[in-house]
Amino acid sequence: MIKSPLQIARESYNPKLPEALKGTVKIVEGNKTESVADQGDISKLFPNTYGMPILSFEAGESAATDKAISVGVILSGGQAPGGHNVISGIYDGLKKLNPANKVYGFLGGPGGLVNNEYSELTDDVIDHYRNTGGFDIIGSGRTKLEEEAQFDKGLENCKALGINALVIIGGDDSNTNACVLAEYFLQKKSGVQVIGVPKTIDGDLKNEMIETSFGFDTACKVYSELIGNIQRDANSAKKYWHFIKLMGRSASHIALECALQTQPNVTIISEEVEANNMTLGEVIDHISEVVVNRAANGENFGTVLIPEGLVEFMPAMKKLISELNDILAHNEVAVSTMETNKERREFVVKKLSADMAEVFRSLPNSFANQLMLDRDPHGNVQVSMIETEKLLIDMVKAKLKKMKKAGEYKGKFSAQGHFFGYEGRCAAPSNFDADYCYSLGYTASVLIAAGKSGYMASVRNLTAPASEWIAGGVPITMMMNMERRHGAMKPVIQKALVRLDGAPFNALKRQRDEWAANTMYVYPGPIQYFGPSEVCDMPTKTLLEESK
Ligand code: FBP
Q: Binding residues for Mg(2+), per the UniProt record (predicted)?
């Protein structure tokens, strides 16, 4: 690998750790826990890992094992900045406990565990990847671990390598898998522990004990830089409306954070669209109204932020997608053997309920085809592949044309569509993510050495300086509820959507009318790695608002 000057300079960055992790660590047990919902079902499905106490770390005498242990790490799902630092934190934490401890990386995601594809991570390898973006140290993948045969194969491979614990670094679905695996390994009395680490740029793996998932900070800062650049371009040329779709799957946390950082003219929040029962037509009316009002002030330009999961939140579309999910899950073979999209659409229309068939027929063909694309291995619609920004541009254009004819609009509308997603997932982690990830990895090593399983590493108090962060472990069962997946009820970690009564959304609500009417753009510029702490170590606006 040819390293860039920044990469070389970042190699020597020493991530900051919470005070409690700097010396020997004492583990303090808190209260017993309950799952967020469906306690009866979850406790039955997880008899060995349900109800475990919350753990917090303090400086003090450690009860950790000093016997040499081996740990396998897995990077699961979409890339998120800082994954390499989680691994270096695990590595350094374990080596500090006993230099004979070993770390193996399973290659290409959870599939590597089942297929026994791994490599041992040594000083050379780890040093090469410190503070870098990407998951290329061992690769990632989206294989879902759900069959007993996969668990048994994984266990057999762990035993052969002498692995005592697995760390699964992933989002809500991957940590659900971690929990299922932990329970299975305990039932089998296998002696292999499983620990989860909260990863995802989407920011939707969060709760009382997990303030944010790693990668959200860096990804939002990258997108905000780009949005700021576009806004400055728009305000210079004054001739384009930019419709910017932002990654984030279902939740609108990324769109909301980027809005707070850049102050665009329109920000759609899917959760609000759903709560207000808004139709696609009403979303179009809202955007068009802002365009018309700005045009009346001579400003034929602007920015619209669109969360990538928007279509799933409009009541009619949500119902349609849910019916489509069931139809596609139950007719996988039949649908996959059809040669044309037309054939697929006709097949699906016959199976949809009458009202949903009507909604489906009313959609442009290109958009309807995108709704039928393969689901990911966890049954999710691949919203990144749905071109919502183009759909909105076309519909706003059509609406404005009508308004112009009726004499209600006199401006010019020329629009550009963008999608910001993949460009943010492998950026060099911000100081926040570099520190947070390293601390999460270090926390995982402490949980392992204490013999814990079925826990997620947790680091809190994140708006304070890193030395004051609070590290510990949270039982994964605490975050679970029952949801319909692939046509059946399954235990899964509850996704955290944007809370409409939460401080970050209220901050947007208070200011958005002013941002719509006026041009109040903020240009955040690129992430800074060297320089004053107020520039380099700043947490997200979401965390800052939530901590007020
Ligand atoms: P994770 O939930 O696995 O972290 O994935 C995040 C994400 O970037 C989503 O925002 C996006 O919808 C999805 O991955 C895209 O998936 P893929 O990389 O498979 O195209």
A: 172
* CA 409 distance to own-chain centroid: 40
Which of 162, 447, 407, 457 is closest to 296 using CA atoms?
Answer: 407
CA of 217 to the centre of ligand 1 (A): 16
Tell me whether residue 442 is annotated as binding: no
- The whole-number pLDDT of residue 378 equals 65
Q: Which two tokens stand for residue 277?
A: 């029962």
**pLDDT value, residue 40:** 97
> In this model, does residue 487 exceed pLDDT 80?
no
432 CA distance to ligand 1 centroid (A)?
21
d(Cα 241, Cα 300) in Å, to the nearest integer? 7
CA 13 vs CA 84, 216, 429, 464, 530: distances in Å: 13, 20, 11, 20, 10
Residue nearest to atom 16 of ligand 1 (CA): 78
Q: What is the spatial distance between Cα 134 and Cα 85, in angstroms, rounded to a whole number? A: 10
| Ligand 1 shell residues, CB under 6 Å | 77-78, 80, 171, 200-202, 247-249, 308, 383-384, 425
Q: Is 401 left (phi over 0), alpha (psi -120 to 50) or beta?
A: alpha
| Amino acid type, 513 | D
Burial, 288: exposed, middle or buried (Cβ in 10 Å; 0-12, 13-18, 19+)? Answer: buried
Query: Do the beta carbons of residue 135 and residue 83 sit within 8 Å?
Result: yes
Query: What is the enclosing helix (H) or strand (E) of 485?
Result: strand 480-485
The overall longest dimension of the chain from CA atoms, in Å, is 80
Which of 222, 247, 312, 386 has the most ligand 1 atoms within 8 A of CB, as the residue to mutate? 247
CA-CA distance, 538 to 532, in Å (whole number)? 10
Domain boundaries, given as residue ranges, for the chain: 25-215+430-493
Specify the CATH architecture of the domain 25-215+430-493: 3-Layer(aba) Sandwich (3.40)
User: From CA 20, how far away is CA 60, in angstroms rounded?
Assistant: 8
- Tell me, what amino acid is at 484? R
* Residue identifier of the C-alpha nearest atom 10 of ligand 1: 248
Ligand 1: distance of its center to the CA of 377 in Å?
Answer: 12
CA of 383 to the centre of ligand 1 (A): 9
- For the chain, the helix, strand and coil percentages under 3-state DSSP, each to the nearest 5: 45, 15, 35
201 among the known binding-site residues?
Answer: yes
Catalytic residue positions, numbered: 202
For ligand 1, what atom is nearest to the CA of residue 382? Answer: 12
The pLDDT value recorded for residue 412 is 96
Q: Is 274 annotated as ligand-binding? A: no
Residues 469-492 have a mean pLDDT of 93
Residue 198's H or E segment, with its range, is strand 193-198
> What is d(CA 197, CA 440) in angstroms, rounded to the nearest whole number?
7
Q: What's the rounded Cα separation, in Å, for the pair 316 and 277?
A: 9
Task: Give ipTM to 2 decimals.
Answer: 0.97
CA dihedral 269, 273, 276, 279 (to 10 degrees): 160
Section 46-69 average pLDDT: 91
Helix axes 253-262, 216-237, angle to 10 degrees: 50
